[in-house]
Amino acid sequence: MTTEDLTGRLAPALAAEEAGDPFVLGGQTLTSRLLLGTGGVPSLEALEAAVRASGTQLVTVALRRVEASAAGSMMQVLDRAGVRLLPNTAGCRTAREAVRTARLAREAFGTDWVKLEVIGDDVTLLPDAVELLDAAEQLVAEGFTVLAYTTDDPVLGRRLADAGCAAVMPLGSPIGSGLGIRNPHSIALLRDAVDVPVVLDAGIGTASDAALAMELGCDAVLLASAVTRARDPERMALAMRQAVEGGRLARLAGRIPRRWHAEASTSFEGLPAL
Amino acid sequence: MQVTVNGDAAELADGATVADLVADLLAERASGHDRVAVARNGDVVPRSSWAQTPLAPGDAVEVLAPTAGG
């Protein structure tokens, strides 16, 4: 199935839905609520197909020491796709490293947007709250549009928003784990605690996880491994796109309350005696 | 003069600039990167200043390029 086959027949209806529900991030209006990471991508062809099928407008990239690699071509693929770039500070462990990396990313990519990631633990790759907040404050002061990768702690989320972050991006579970959203209650509390966009970032394993994030009130979802490491990245990218849209629609539509017992959907009035 | 480039010791001609170093490195790695960022002793050297920034013995330079990342 080609990319056009996968996405083309859905496009008109989706575009109509999106038109009435813009997503404003860092002062920019996006029609897609799916942010895609490039980490773990098996090939440039797979990346191009996944980006297209996902409908994403914002794609994360990283900076590393220059090597003879295909990364130059990766940038051509992303340029061709017309997506906005979101550099990350992956691998940074201190505020100092993260701030320096963000400055270098601004120079390399010509954008002051940054996905701020400050890692405090090798095994879980969980954020270091203290360094993260410190880095966020410095980068905001330097004029960066900071999208902060954080834990699902609503208090820390509020501190990051108060520091001027353009978005708070809580994890559902550890990076690359595919464990989904381990604490939906915390994500919902965080959503209520801040006035900036909340982007569920990390832990998504499959489409239902992305839909749940949106149903909980997240404004968008950022995922990489769930697509890039799927057996069929292009198909999974489309699945994520539809899940994000479905979850968003369900959130806006308002779900029914949970009940302990049944509530008949068919009236008992007029029931014949048989 | 002796400097450190991306963690490795390197010998450069006296008076070499950041622009010289980047050109040599990209040629050596046969790299087609056009989005390259340079840090000298931790501080960003803007591309517009590369040609006017001479390196000094003992400098630690990081030359970075885009890669895939989540």
Automatic annotation (TrEMBL), chain A:
Domain Thiazole synthase ThiG stretches: 25-266
Q: Name one GO cellular component term.
A: cytoplasm
**InterPro entries given in the database record:** Aldolase_TIM, Thiazole_synthase_ThiG, ThiG
Q: What class of enzyme is it?
A: transferase
Q: Which reaction does it catalyse?
A: [ThiS sulfur-carrier protein]-C-terminal-Gly-aminoethanethioate + 2-iminoacetate + 1-deoxy-D-xylulose 5-phosphate = [ThiS sulfur-carrier protein]-C-terminal Gly-Gly + 2-[(2R,5Z)-2-carboxy-4-methylthiazol-5(2H)-ylidene]ethyl phosphate + 2 H2O + H(+)
UniProt keyword list? Cytoplasm, Schiff base, Thiamine biosynthesis, Transferase
Q: Which Gene3D superfamilies match?
A: Aldolase class I
- What Pfam families does its record include? ThiG (PF05690)
Q: Where does 1-deoxy-D-xylulose 5-phosphate bind?
A: G176, A202, G203, A224, S225
Q: What is its EC number?
A: 2.8.1.10
Q: What role does it play?
A: Catalyzes the rearrangement of 1-deoxy-D-xylulose 5-phosphate (DXP) to produce the thiazole phosphate moiety of thiamine. Sulfur is provided by the thiocarboxylate moiety of the carrier protein ThiS. In vitro, sulfur can be provided by H(2)S.
Name the family: Belongs to the ThiG family.
Record-given protein name? Thiazole synthase
TrEMBL record, chain B:
Q: SUPFAM superfamilies, alphabetically? A: MoaD/ThiS
**Family annotation (Pfam families):** ThiS
Task: Show the CDD domains listed in the entry.
Answer: Ubl_ThiS
PANTHER family this protein is in? SULFUR CARRIER PROTEIN THIS
Protein name listed in UniProt: Sulfur carrier protein
Organism the protein comes from: Geodermatophilus nigrescens
